[in-house]
Structure formats: structure tokens, C-alpha cells
Amino acid sequence: MTLLQHDLTDFTADAYQNNEIKQVRKDDLLGHWSVLFFYPADFSFVCPTELEDLADHYDEFKQAGCEIYSVSCDTQWTHKAWHDANEKIGKITFPMIADPTALLARDLDTYNEKTGLAERGDFIIDPEGRVVAYEVISSNVGRDAAEILRRVKASQFVYEHTDQVCPAKWEPGEDTIKPSLDLVGEL
């Protein structure tokens, strides 16, 4: 089953951001592009390297009109403790969503029932709250923020230019492809 075009469930979740506990709702993701970035757990091994990479690219995501929301099944208080204790995580200024009931992890099929943790999954969400791209990978392999950002920009381009598609490794400003009308039904 694919999650493409999946409409996010309505949710309200606590999040840690900039030394505050706040609530994030589905409505907060509407009207702009978002990345929901699931990871297994705070105080772990690969996760801080991924989240630091996202923090290092955060300004570029914001310039592209995209908000990052990291998500794990930890609580907002665990996020705060990790943020305060880890130099890499201390760089984070985007919302760190707490999903201790796994509502979001289950909605996007990243919840691992055996471990009680979310798998590594990143979901690009369009301004209407629908999944337009996603990747779920093994918990022992980290992801690359630059590639996620490239996919956000490509998704934005085709969202605005529905008659065009982006080839592999496409970057903004490069040539796109206008599919032949005869082949559109085969895409």
C-alpha cells in the first residue's frame, strides 16, 4: 500500500522548540510545505547525526518555504533533556514533536510494534496536508538532509508546473521534461 497522496490524520501533539513546550496541530502544517522526519529515539546513535544535518540545512528549508518537524515516540520532556545535553541536538531550532502514543507514527506506517519505536522515515507534505514523497529506511542507516531538500524543491516545482516532471538529480533552474500527451496516462 502506498502512502502517496495520503491525507494526514488530524492531530495535536506537544513539541519542544526553542526552550518552549508548544502544541503542533495538523492545521500548522497546512498552507506551506513540511517535512515530517521520523527517527527511532532520543539519546541514540545515528539520530543525532541526522538531526544535526537537518539543523545545518534548516535555513535552506525555510528559504524554500518548508518547515521541518522531527518526530519520535519520545516525550517533549525527553526532547528537551536531549536538546540540553547534546551539542549536536542543541543546534536544533525546528519543532521536535513528541509522539508517545505513536498516533503519527501509525498514521504514516513507521511504527514498529516490536520495538515501540518509529522507523526512520521522512515525509514531504504539500500545503494541503498530503504526502507527496516519502522514504522509510532501516534504522541503522542515516539520511542526507541535502537530498531531502532537493526532493522538496522538485516536489514544489511539479506541484506548481503540473505539465512537467523532474529528472533524476534535478536541481532548481535545470531543465525539466514535458511528457508527451500520448504518454501522460502511462506515468
What features would you describe in this structure?
With 187 residues, the protein is α+β, with helices and mostly antiparallel strands. The chain has one domain (12-144): Glutaredoxin. The chain is built from five helices and nine strands, in the order ββαβαβαβαββββα. The strands form two sheets. A seven-stranded mixed β-sheet has the order 2-1-5-4-3-8-9. A hairpin with a 5-residue loop joins β8 and β9 (131-137). The protein starts with 11 loop residues before the first strand and ends in a 27-residue tail after the last helix.
Q: CATH superfamily name?
A: Glutaredoxin
- Globular, elongated, flat, extended or rod-shaped: what is the shape? globular
Largest sheet: 7 strands, mixed
Discrete helix count: 5
Percent strand equals 15-25%
Write the layout of secondary structure elements.
Blueprint: E1 12-17, E2 20-25, H1 26-29, E3 33-38, H2 47-63, E4 66-72, H3 76-85, E5 96-98, H4 103-107, E6 111-112, E7 117-118, E8 120-125, E9 131-137, H5 145-160
Parallel strand pairs: 3-4, 4-5
Antiparallel strand pairs: 1-2, 1-5, 3-8, 6-7, 8-9
Helix pairs in contact: 2-5
